[in-house]
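Hi everyone,

Forwarding the result from last night's run.
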Amino acid sequence: MKTPTEPEIPFLPMDAYSAQEAFDWTRQDMMRTFFCLIRSGVDPQILRGEINCTINAMRGALQLEGLG
């Protein structure tokens, strides 16, 4: 059985200010989502770990692009 290939991620040139702004918007959106999950009864301890992992991944991505 053939495994599906992941689509190629397009390269979007971005300066450091734009990258930081995108990071901030993404973080705010992620936090709103996590707060909604907490209100719906999801364990906050699990979410805390997920938030840390996600933010670390975002910072790592910025560093790989030379913007972090």
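The mean pLDDT is 77.

Cheers,
N.
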